[in-house]
Amino acid sequence: MILTLGDILVAATARLKSAGVEGPRRDARVLVGHVLGLDTAAMILSPGRVLSVDEVADIEAVVVRREQREPVSRILGCRDFHGLPFALSPETLDPRPDSETVVDAALAFLDAVKTPRLLDLGTGSGCLLLALLAARGDAYGVGMDAAQGAVDAALRNAESLGLGARTQFLCRDWTDADWRNGLGIFDFVVSNPPYIPDADVAGLAPEVRDFDPLRALAGGVDGLDPYRLLIPELPSLLKPGGGAVFEVGLHQDVEVASLFQDGGFEVVEILRDLGGISRAVVARQSA
């Protein structure tokens, strides 16, 4: 049976729609284009292109994966974040546009800070830290994660982005008593900790629940356990007047802000993401 590019796009879109995928036509175009090495414009201009047996088989393989709700970014192995490409691994979160709010908040805070030293707690793919270093050529950063696979992915991303000389990544678990040993002092701390209440994980979209690592999602009964653990440790890690920005989940901003205030911080700002949800709590260490 002869199949054209137009045929395969129609069929893939219908299958992804039946599987409950949001934006099935968009995802079909991305996946088919990835297999064929074509951009959207090229596909629009050549709907009658006849596909080879091997091309059809390769497209079938990625469409099946998306039907099973594997995210497009994981199928491609890469996600763009803050204008930069980040390779993923099974032990990293899939970076999302909402988290760019954290990067923008940190850059605003650091605008007047020369040669800032940055710490990223729960670095995952390294997207927060490396986006900051890419924007601030005078900065140095340390990323920490409890998963060795995440640390390895962050190291690879740092090297591929040409930022390896200004970064260090450590495999440490912040539930260990000695996790702060030897880290030093920083101007700013960023973190996107696990903040999903444990009972809510099962109800997440399959793309998140089944493919993001559980340890990067579940934050305890109310999702706030990491904040309760980390915020009291920040004063020993920050220079006087240093700051922090933590990503938060839905309706968690007020409680996290209160934890910062209880820890001796001034809450500078609570920023909303593109969807209008309070996403980033920015705090400065009180003098």
How does this model look, in words?
The protein has helices at 5-18, 24-36, 40-45, 53-67, 72-76, 100-109, 127-135, 148-160, 206-209, 225-230, 253-262, and strands at residues 78-81, 84-87, 117-121, 140-145, 167-171, 186-191, 238-247, 265-272, 278-285. It is of the alpha/beta class and 287 residues long. It has two domains: 5-68, Ubiquitin-associated (UBA) domain (Helicase, Ruva Protein, domain 3), CATH 1.10.8; 90-285, 3-Layer(aba) Sandwich (Rossmann fold), CATH 3.40.50.150. The strands form two sheets. The protein has a seven-stranded mixed beta sheet with strand order 5-4-3-6-7-9-8, sandwiched between helices. Helix 8 links the parallel strand 4 and strand 5 (167-171). Helix 1 (5-18) packs parallel to helix 4 (53-67), helix 2 (24-36) runs antiparallel to helix 4 and helix 6 crosses helix 7.
Pick out its properties.
single chain, 287 residues, alpha/beta, Helicase, Ruva Protein, domain 3, Rossmann fold, 2 domains, seven-stranded mixed beta sheet, 9 strands, 37% helix, elongated
